[in-house]
Amino acid sequence: MTDKEETMDSSDGHVSAPSVKKSGRTSLLDSGEDFEVLDEEDIDDDPPPLEDAGGGKGRTTDESENKNEDSDSNPPGPVEEWLDVLGNDQLKKKVLEAGEGRDSRPQKGQNVQINLKTYLKDGTLVEEQSDLSFTLGDGDVIQALDLTVQLMDMGEKALVQADAKYSYGVRGSLEPEVPPNSELSLEVELLKATDAPDLELLPPPEKICLASHKRERGNVHYQRADYAFAVNSYSIALQITESSSKVDISTEEEKDLMDVRVKCLNNMAASQLKLDHYDAALKSCVSALEHQPDNIKALFRMGKVLALQGEYTDAIQTLRKALKLEPSNKTIHAELSKLVKKNSEQRGAEQAMYKKMLGNPGSSSGGGGSQKQPRAKSTWALSWKWLFGATAVAIGGVALSVVIAARN
């Protein structure tokens, strides 16, 4: 296995174009898929529904010049008001220039294109992006954009104030350069919204690239300890790889698509482990092994899941299979040694418990047990003597009766 197979995107910035990363070979479990454990942030798996509220249009006049002046320099009252998007005062939106009306708003799942300027709270410009494209609601960008662009009219310019929770969180970002726990001001202009492409008609290279793009975004969420969002991104990538195709696809393209699918299943299992969703993680590992039975990462994670579920025997057997495939892997060695020791301790405790429940005849006080045994033997011996004696008397009686009968 290589870094190519499990490379994680360390950038926290927006991903504007799909890409597939490649690098040199390394140990299977030393690649980017295994992450440093982070302090988990509060994650809103399902954000509250967005209220259908917002800007409104400028005053209409008979002259177009007056209309433009009203919208630019003197917008109506509702346009100037801040909209508390989630009702917690941590994500707010204000219309700067009104758009084409609510009927023009983009829908979740559509591909949108925006112009974006990102400022720190003190007004420092940290990033400016033109024609930034992403799928609305897929988690391709920070949550502040995903939630507020849904409330923008086409052509609208808006100012968004976002708490760190809905931007780059406690870790901040290297690209763009955002300090930890930073509130942001986002200047957004909605340019275009189009329906997502039909996956069945998507050429295989584009489908592979799109699935890889979604998987890499899931890696970003994982690195930020946003495990629920990571699972969502991996699920979207899996849907792309598993979609049927109405166009011709080569054997090599099928193999590439399968590789992306297995990577998603492996990374999803890692995220589900972090969320303590053991049954779901086990299912992901099993699915990965159905496609690639000797996938070491899937075997390793499956062993960890089984151990966490208390199935030490199956876990040890699974890890031994993984170790056989890569004997030099220290991570598997350490996990296997820990499990063998834990399993031995558990078996010892169980044996002690069974002995306590059933009792130990050899530990009876006063040697009472040893006295009962000879006594039982002597009783049996006496019984056998009486049995033989009775049998002899009976036989003698029968013989005597025969003799008397013969004489008569």
Give the beta-strand count.
Answer: 6
Alpha-beta classification:
alpha+beta
Principal-axis shape: elongated
Rg for CA atoms: 37 Å
Strand content: 5-15%
What is the element string, with H for helices and E for strands? HHHEEEEHEEHHHHHHHH
Give the distance, in angstroms, between the N- and C-terminal Cα atoms.
105 Å
For the sheet with most strands, the description reads: 6 strands, antiparallel
Number of helices: 12
Q: How much helix, percentage-wise, in residues?
A: 40-55%
Strand order of the largest sheet: 1-2-5-6-3-4
Please mark out the parts with pLDDT under 50 across 5 or more consecutive residues, or reply none. Answer: 1-79, 362-378
Summarize model confidence as the mean pLDDT.
78
Give a verbal description of the structure.
The structure is a single chain. The radius of gyration is 37 Å and the shape is elongated. It is built from twelve helices and six strands. Residues 1-79 and 362-378 have low confidence and may be disordered. Helix 8 packs antiparallel against helix 9. It has helices at 3-6, 64-73, 77-80, 143-148, 204-223, 227-242, 251-274, 278-291, 296-308, 312-325, 330-358, 368-407; strands spanning 83-84, 91-97, 111-120, 125-135, 157-162, 184-194. With 408 residues, the protein is α+β, with helices and mostly antiparallel strands. A hairpin with a 6-residue loop joins strand 1 and strand 2. The protein is 48% helix and 12% strand. The chain has a six-stranded antiparallel sheet with strand order 1-2-5-6-3-4.
